[in-house]
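Dear H.,

Thanks for agreeing to be a second pair of eyes. The structure we're designing against is below in token form, covering all 395 positions.
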């Protein structure tokens, strides 16, 4: 067995076969990851034999579910090196960034980068921040030298993708934190693409906020987290009102629960939180250093094979984390994706919710292959075979 096949966890993932029982070469993990059986079982139990509401029940099932829900918060916190009271459960990274953009009390200029996902651009615009944009280096990384030159005391926030969902490039989070702090700003890292494939420790990064989604981390949809430093969360007013986020409600005056409950109005995503924690445990057991090495090898094989084709343009640096974006001369990415689908190979084609990056690159779309714990070199080989067939079809 090859290195990548030894690591591959295909057997844990019931979703990785077609309706006809053939292998499905799933290369769209950056959009959303397949779910291992342990996560499916955890959510199924939470929805079935263990199900009850949290925080309010006087009966034992509800008390147990409350313990499970709060244990999930601890698991998610320790997964990124944070503390339990610093994790706000949200609908996903998108909602986490919206929460921060709306609720952060000291609004001003925010420094974003040219490679950001729309969910790390539009919330800042909607919440009235003045947006500045840090350029990229030639090989597709956020240019931190340029960031240093751009940052001023008017900047209250720096918000960068820890790993780009298009280019796979990683930012040096610690240096970004130092640059932000040097002008009195805070750093948000959008960790959507980092948490499934890199060891993440918010204390070592010295960032102030970290946003991510469970569904890219082998967990359920509909849940994610905003991690924030306790003192910063404590200074943020609530952004949605309702049950569970209050201390005392009156028609004349209402007071609020402390963070993180203050930001979790309404009945929370109980089942999803349990599944989120199961996914963190699953990934922790395998180890993100090992996952990172595994995906780096698959990226190397893919970039080498595509780089040998003289009609292929590769985007992003060679050390991209788990993600390879490319274009084939004369073949639209959507056509490539459709033909690959006939071969049971699933890739992503489009702007990947990063239209400003597409504009900067002078293109409208890329084809993107992205890897996960279950990917192996058979998937890479199927991709390359499918690309060769597509090129034959297009002459
Ligand atoms: N940021 C990045 C870098 C992403 O890749 C994504 C998902 N494609 C998001 C933010 C948004 O995540 P979600 O849709 O799960 O809220």
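And this is the sequence the design step returned. I haven't edited it by hand at all.
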């Amino acid at each position: 067995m090859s290195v990548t096949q030894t690591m591959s966890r295909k057997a844990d993932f019931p979703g990785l076969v077609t309706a006809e029982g053939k292998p499905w070469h799933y290369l769209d993990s950056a959009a959303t990851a397949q779910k291992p059986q342990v996560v499916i079982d955890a959510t199924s139990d939470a929805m079935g034999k263990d199900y009850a509401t949290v925080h309010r029940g006087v009966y034992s099932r509800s008390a147990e579910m409350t313990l499970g829900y709060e244990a999930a918060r601890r698991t998610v916190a320790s997964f990124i090196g944070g503390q339990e009271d610093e994790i706000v459960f949200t609908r996903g990274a998108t909602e986490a960034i919206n929460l921060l953009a709306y609720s952060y009390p000291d609004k001003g200029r925010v420094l974003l980068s040219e490679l950001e996902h729309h969910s790390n651009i539009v919330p800042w615009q909607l919440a009235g921040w003045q947006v500045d944009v840090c350029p990229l280096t030639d090989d597709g990384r956020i240019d931190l030298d340029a960031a240093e030159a751009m940052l001023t005391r008017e900047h209250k926030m720096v918000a960068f993708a820890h790993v780009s969902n298009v280019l796979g490039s990683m930012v040096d989070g610690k240096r970004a934190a130092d640059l932000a702090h040097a002008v009195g700003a805070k750093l948000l890292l959008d960790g959507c693409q980092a948490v499934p494939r890199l060891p993440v420790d918010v204390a070592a990064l010295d960032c102030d906020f970290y946003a991510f989604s469970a569904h890219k981390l082998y967990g359920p949809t509909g849940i994610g987290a905003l991690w924030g430093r306790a003192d910063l969360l404590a200074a943020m007013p609530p952004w949605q009102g309702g049950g569970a986020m209050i201390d005392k409600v009156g028609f004349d005056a209402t007071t609020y629960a402390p963070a993180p409950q203050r930001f979790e109005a309404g009945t929370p995503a109980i089942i999803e939180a349990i599944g989120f924690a199961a996914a963190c445990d699953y990934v922790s057991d395998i180890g993100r250093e090992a996952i990172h090495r595994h995906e780096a090898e698959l990226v190397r094989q893919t970039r080498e094979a595509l780089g040998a084709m003289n009609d292929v343009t590769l985007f992003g640096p060679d050390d991209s984390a788990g993600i390879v974006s490319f274009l084939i001369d004369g073949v639209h990415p959507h056509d490539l994706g459709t033909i690959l689908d006939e071969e049971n190979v699933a890739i992503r084609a489009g702007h990947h919710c990063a239209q400003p990056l597409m504009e900067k690159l002078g293109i409208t779309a890329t084809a993107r292959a992205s890897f996960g714990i279950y990917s192996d070199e058979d998937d890479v080989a199927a991709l390359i075979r499918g690309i060769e067939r597509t090129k034959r079809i297009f002459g």
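Two observations from my side: The longest strand covers residues 155-161. The domain at 3-31+287-393 is CATH 3.90.1150.10 (Aspartate Aminotransferase, domain 1).

Warmly,
E.
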